[in-house]
Design goal:
The protein is of the alpha+beta class. Helices cover 32% and strands 25% of the residues.
């Protein structure tokens, strides 16, 4: 019996309805515990790495406390899902399709241009919880992919930040003359969370291309939260080598978007 199964057994002995679950996350699968509820409201997952304690009873105490905190954050009000609510509260998310076949099994998704990236749609349930929009939800609420995709794209405010602005902001004692000038833009969303979906917005990509003064640009997948854009000029092998190094040194597995760059030529995105 695994440690999680022992914790669930302890919870059941205390009168809780609980079970072990697996959740497909970007690039990974995480195990945890859910406390089953009598309603159709979502059940927060208490992931295994959040549990703290020296023995099974202490781990069970921790699970109970975390579940209570999650439910308090979610609030007690009932949310009745509707077609309009989904259209108004959906947003785009992206991942490598060949790394995430399990995650994409039960959701509608599309490949992005001629790339190995997939775009799917998430629903903001509350400030503390989101969920993937499943194929069943499309059917239940009579939603088409095109309709919900366009709504999700409009619901997201995307941003472009010039790397030179950041360098000047944190330049310490360097003068303007000493500051390097770098042709690099950071693209994300206002929250800087899951902002790599900006690559689905051709208007933003065109604007970035104009700011760089280049008809073609590299899109560097720095994480699932943002991408960087530079003019098409560097050796592609060097760019891809840099991406692999950064992924290995700085990013957690579930924050990695890809291990190579992409190219935007003003019309479509392709693998770099």
């Amino acid at each position: 019996m695994t440690k999680l199964e022992q914790v669930v057994e302890e919870l059941i002995s205390r009168g809780f309805a609980a079970e072990v679950t697996e959740v497909s996350k970007v690039n990974s699968v995480r195990k945890g515990i859910i406390f089953l509820r009598d309603t159709n409201d979502p059940c927060p997952v208490i992931y295994e790495d959040l549990l703290e304690g020296n023995n099974i009873k202490e781990l069970a105490d921790c699970a109970i406390r975390l579940n209570k905190e999650f439910l308090e954050r979610l609030g007690n009000e009932k949310l009745e899902l509707s077609r309009d609510y989904i259209l108004q509260n959906s947003f785009l998310d992206v991942c490598r399709s060949d790394w995430n076949s399990k995650l994409l099994e039960n959701v509608e998704f599309r490949q992005i241009g001629n790339t190995d990236l997939a775009v799917f749609i998430r629903l903001k349930y509350t400030d503390a919880m989101t969920c993937k929009v499943s194929k069943g939800m499309f059917e239940a609420f009579n939603l088409s992919w095109d309709e919900l995709y366009e709504a999700a794209l409009k619901n997201q405010e995307y941003t472009i930040t010039d790397m030179n602005y950041i360098l000047h902001k944190y330049r310490c004692d360097m003068t303007d003359e000493e500051m390097p000038q770098i042709k690099m833009l950071i693209l994300s969303n206002e929250s800087r969370c899951k902002g790599a979906s900006v690559i689905c917005n051709n208007y933003i990509l065109d604007e970035a291309s104009q700011m760089l003064g280049s008809d073609s640009m590299y899109i560097i997948p720095s994480s699932i939260h943002e991408v960087m854009c530079v003019p098409d000029g560097m050796r592609r092998e060097d760019v891809n080598s840099m991406i692999v190094d950064v992924n290995w040194a700085l990013l957690e597995e579930d924050e990695k978007l890809s291990d190579h760059c992409y190219i935007y030529d003003g019309k479509e995105i392709t693998n770099g």
